[in-house]
Amino acid sequence: MLSNFLELTKAQGASLCDPVGFGKYKGKKVWEIPETYWQSFCTKNGFAYSALLEKINEARYHRDLLQSKPARRKIDPTDIREMLFPHQKEYVLRFGDLPYSNLWAAIGTGKTYSYLELVRHKVRVEDKALILCPKSVFTSWNKAILNYLGPKATYINLTGTTDEKLQRLSYDRYFYITNYETLLNERILAALINKGFSFIAADEAHKFFANTKTKTYKNAMALSANIENKNILTGTPRRSKDENLYGLITFLDRGQRFGASFYAFRKKYFTSDYMGFNYTFNESLRKEFWDKIKELSYIVTQDVLKLPELTEQILEIELSGEALAHYKAMKDDAMIEVNNYNRNKIVAAIAIAKITKLRQLCSGFVNDTEQKQTLVFNQDKIEALADFLEGIDEPVIITASYSQEIQLIGKLLKEKNYSYGEISGKIKDEARNKSIDLFSNNKLDVLIIQEDSGGVGIDGLQNHCSLMIRYSYGYSYDTDQQIIGRIQRSGQKQSMRMVRFKSTLPNGKETVEDAIIDTIKNKEEGFENLVKHLKG
Q: What is the pLDDT of residue 384?
C-alpha cells in the first residue's frame, strides 16, 4: 500500500485519474476516496496531507477536462460591475481565480454582492451553488440574487418537511438555499452530497464552525469535500478565541494550513494555563499563524463606507422595590458559583443560570422555572422607556433579549398609541417581512426586535431610521454588532444614535449589565486585534 501511495505522489496530470489500489478502496479513483481516510493515512505514515491535497485537486481538474467541461473563465478586470465599491472589486480581483476564500466583511459592507460578483465571473451553465445560512437570512439572499443577477439566476429555498426539502432539491435551479440545521438530517445530507454542487458559500459561518466537534461541522465538511469552490462569508469571524478560527480555515483548505487535528493545531500555536482552560498564543508562532490566515482571507471594516457618526449613549435606571430586593439576594448567592466557574462544569451551569436571572431582574421580571411562571415586579425600565419615547419625534428601533420584555414593550406601545411591528421568535416569516416593509416605508413608529431573531437578514431599516434603543442585550459580541448593523450600514445618511438602557443599584453600584458591556468591549478588542493582523 505504501509503495502505491509513493507512486501516487509522483504521478502527474491525467495519470492521476487512473484507479488506485489502496486496501478496501482498491479500484477507486483518488478523489473518490474519503478525505478522512487520506488524513488518517498521512498522519500514520508521516506524510504531509497538504501535498496530497494538491494532487487530489489536480486530479479533479483533469477529471473535468476528461468530462469535456468548459474551463472556468479568468477574472476580467474590465468586466467587474461599476456599481460595486472599491473594496468589493478588490476582493473579486484578488480571490476570484482561487478555489476558496474567507470574506470577512463588516455588517453593511456588501459581502453578498461581493460573492455574487465572484460567482458571476466563474459560473458555467451546468454549475449549481449551495448557500448555507441562518433561516432568517433566506429572504435577503433571495432579494440579492434577483436584484444583482436578474431573473435568469433561479433559486429555491429548501424549507418544509424532510420530504418537501428533498422535493425542492430535485428542482433544477442555479442557487439552493438552506440552513445549517438541515445538515443534521442524514437523508437530506446524502441528497445534497449527490447533487454535485460546484459552489458552496457558508454565510455567518462563525456561529456554526467555531466548534469542530459538532455534528453540524462534521457534516458540513463531508458535504463540501468534493465541491470545487468554497467561500466563507461573515462579519464577525472571531468568536472570543483565536483558536476558533481553525474551523473556518479548515472548512476551506481541508487541513492544508493547520493540519487535520484541531488538538494538534492548538497544541502547536497556543499555550494553556495550568488549569487547561484558557489558551494564549505561542508568541514564537504568532506571525506564522496570521500569515497562513492572510493567504486566503479578505477583511473589510466599516470605515470603507464613510458612514455618518454613530453616538453611543448609556441611560442609567436605578432598580427599586421587589426587583431590587430579589436582585440583591440572588447576586450574593450567584457569586459563589461565579468564583468557581472554571473548576466545575455543574457549578458553571448553575452560575450561568443565576446570571440569566440577574439579567431578567434588571428588567423587572424573572422566570420561575420550578413553578413554570413569570414573576413580574416593579417596572423601572418600562417607565424609563415611556419617559424617553415622550421626547422622540422620529422612527425608532427597540431591541431586547427576552420574549417577556418584548411583550411588556408591546403593551406600553399600545397604551401610548404608537404604531409598531415586531420581529421575534414567535413571529412567522410573513408577518416579520410585513413589519420590515411597513417600517421601511414610514408606516410604523416603532419596530421591536428580539436580538436573537433580528440580528441578521434584515436590510433597508437604515434608509428610514437612525435611532436604536437597546432595552436589554446579551454578552455575545457578534450578536451585538449584528444588531447595531441594522442601522449602521451602507445607505445610512443621518447621524446615528444608539441608547443602551442600563440598570444600576442604589448609590450607582454596578449590576450584571455593566459586566455584559465590559465583556462586549473586551471581545471587541479581540476582534480589533484580528483586524490588525490581517490588514497589517
A: 95
Question: Does domain 310-530 sit in CATH 3.30.1300.10?
Answer: no
Fold match, 77-305 / 310-530: yes
Tell me if residue 407 falls in helix, strand or coil. helix
Q: Other C-beta atoms within 10 Å of 359: how many?
A: 22
Residue 188 has pLDDT above 60, yes or no: yes
Domains of the chain, by residue range, sit at 2-66, 77-305, 310-530
Reference 360, options 517, 511, 519; nearest CA is 511
Q: Percent of the chain beyond pLDDT 90?
A: 51
Q: How far is CA 403 from CA 98, 292, 399, 456, in A?
A: 45, 43, 11, 18
| Distances from the Cα of 4 to the Cα of 32, 39, 45, angstroms | 16, 16, 13
Rounded Cα–Cα distance for residues 175 and 331 (Å): 51
Per the DSSP assignment, residues forming a β-bridge with 400 are 450
Q: How far apart are CA 469 and CA 11, in angstroms?
A: 63
pTM given for the model: 0.78
User: Rounded distance, CA 104 to CA 234, Å?
Assistant: 5
Q: What is the CATH number of domain 77-305?
A: 3.40.50.10810
- pLDDT score for 104: 93
